[in-house]
Amino acid sequence: MNNQDTCVLCFVKYPEKGQVKLRLAVDLDDDVVVELYRNFVLDVVSILKKLDTQFYLCFSPLNAQKKFREWLGSSYRYVPQEGNDLGERMKNGFCYAFTEGFRRVILVGSDSPDLPGDFLRTAIAELQTHDMVLGPSSDGGYYLIGFRDDTFLPSVFDGISWSSSSVFQETIAKVKNAGCSLSLLPVWSDVDIISDLKNLVRRNRNTVFKSSHTISFLRRNKIMMDEDDGEKPEL
Prior knowledge:
- By secondary structure, the protein is an alpha/beta fold.
- The protein has a single domain, classed as Spore Coat Polysaccharide Biosynthesis Protein SpsA, Chain A.
- The chain has 7 helices and 7 strands; from the N terminus they run βαβαβαβαββαβαα.
- It has helices spanning 30-49, 65-72, 86-99, 117-126, 167-178, 194-203, 213-220, and strands at 6-13, 54-60, 77-80, 104-108, 132-136, 142-148, 182-184.
- Strands 3-2-1-4-6-5-7 form a 7-stranded mixed beta sheet, with helices on both faces.
- Helix 1 runs antiparallel to helix 7 (213-220).
- The longest helix is centred in the N-terminal third of the chain and has 20 residues, at 30-49.
- The model is unreliable at 227-235 (pLDDT under 50).
């Protein structure tokens, strides 16, 4: 499949204390949380680099581009997140990509460092025959959303109770009301709280992700749970 008409938008925040993964900071040291999120980003970028398509890193805050370039390098395309809330920022991200000439655009976050690359490939393929693709997350939100340029539904981002467990259902209601054909991906998990982090480790004991930046960081800092070895996280 030729994916040159396709773009992936990855929403990332610059890793600073008090700005990323705040619910993890309830159980982990602030410095650990910042470094953990840095590794999330590195792993997501590794996934995107393996795709046969272009991707943009949509960064926040607006003044962080220089810091991102110093951290990740200048070989990536950086686009600022613009808007008053998450919905507006995502909507503007899609608008930007479509004005750049892309026909299919999918958007992901940086909260699922072990998101299977096959999910992304499936999402791209599904936009050949569906108006929209959505990846539901286990917490009631979604980890991926995608449209074609001729089926883009900006209103799907309006009036949503962001950061709540009803995001997915509210979005589905808007999609049904608009009569869009929708392809649903498998449910996957974001890492927002400590139990999510433990589940991430458990499900990757025997996967290629066990050698990832994230798992390596957890292992080095002894905050990795491995019931088989009797280890517990030092929180």
